[in-house]
Amino acid sequence: MDGECDLVVFGAAGDLSGRKLFPALFQLHCAGLLAPQSRIVALARRPQTQETFANDLLERLGGLAESADEQWSSFTERLHYCCLDFNDGKQYALLRTLLKPGRRAIYYLATPPSLFGAICEKLSAQQLIDEYSRVVLEKPIGQDLASCRAVNETVGRLVAEENIYRIDHYLGKETVQNLLVLRFANRFINTQWDQSCIDHIQITVAETVGIEGRWSYYNEVGQLRDMVQNHLVQLLCLVAMEPPNAMTAESIRDEKVKILRALRRIDAASVSAHAVRGQYAQGWYRGSAVPGYLEEEDCTVGDSDTETFVAIKAHIDNWRWAGVPFYLRTGKRLPEKLTEIVITYKSLPHNIFSAGDNIPNRLVIRLQPNEGIAMQMVSKLHSLKNKMALVRQNLNLDFLGSSGMSRIPDAYERLFLDVINGDPSLFVGREEVEEAWQWCDALIAAWDAQAMPVSPYHAGSWGPAKAELLIERDGRSWHE
Ligand code: BG6
Question: Residue 403: is its pLDDT beyond 80?
């Protein structure tokens, strides 16, 4: 059965499928990484022909497919479109006729989480799930701990945990995998990775886009559930976890769960000093006026206190990280699309250079754009006038430049391959996702208890002033 499969995408006409899933599958096809016999079954509610679906997809792939004409036509041979009402159990019989008996089926559920359980039940009722089937669940898994548990329980009754792949696409990003290598293949890094050497850690996930046609969905969810509960918390776990004893899903998940359990809960008493929520108002991006959250085209209400920005000061209560704050921030309509982790080391214990020259080292891990890692070192300024003036300079690791490749593969390409090859190490385990919800639920409850309003910020700025205060109160500042 090696690598050969029927890949069934539920929600094939949705935004994620068009933007990420099908482009990734097409890239894998072009790179010869899909087994020749593997097929892609695209399922959506919309009645349309196979041809219309393929043409729409071609349009959405744009230049990607046009530059690879032959590849596109062989890709469409793998592609089978089928209109299916996901809630109608009887229609699943049709799916049965499409799948090849004896071949592994991989069900990719790119649907709202409220459908995950129901889809699996219907697949199971039609005997479409066997010991070889795999089910991929897109984030978010639920809206809170209770709904997440309900999904995990229903899906878990029908599919063995080792066949459930919970996707957090940030784990498929090249630099995230490289973070594991940086930490666990470089001895000197790991020996300097704790409270004795590190002053604080920042994780920033900034986006320039607004809500992009997803307003109704997003307004129910907000930035904490959409980005922090999964992407930022996962990054934090990978930065903070102890070395796993092997690169297996089990060892990595065990270590991540320990961090999640040590992540200090933010309660009503501590929330105002530890978490800021913001919402973008009208502003400017690259010289053009952009609307506020409540003026977005598909906004359906006059008022909303959903947050589009979150900044958090988090603590991990364990031996390694005692006293080291983790500052997290993420938001929509910020000035740059940028994801980075910045490790700031402690200042020198004793400075033999001039008083102002105690410049701490920094390690900047860039997830996007310009994937790479820069170690900010202190060196001497070349100057005859200033004999011992110091400057900060970068030792730079540029992943694209050093790879000889023309592009860095998208996270979904990596993750599709891993599902096909049965490697769950970059996927999220049940316990992890539930622990992460538990932490987020506590924060949401604290916000509610304090009736914490959203602080407005101008689109195109770095968030509300309170987010600056959150870090500046501690005598630190966000990395620019
Ligand atoms: C998704 C969120 O998980 O990640 C989106 O639902 C967000 O709101 C997206 O825009 C960001 O992903 P990336 O890979 O573009 O940083």
Answer: no
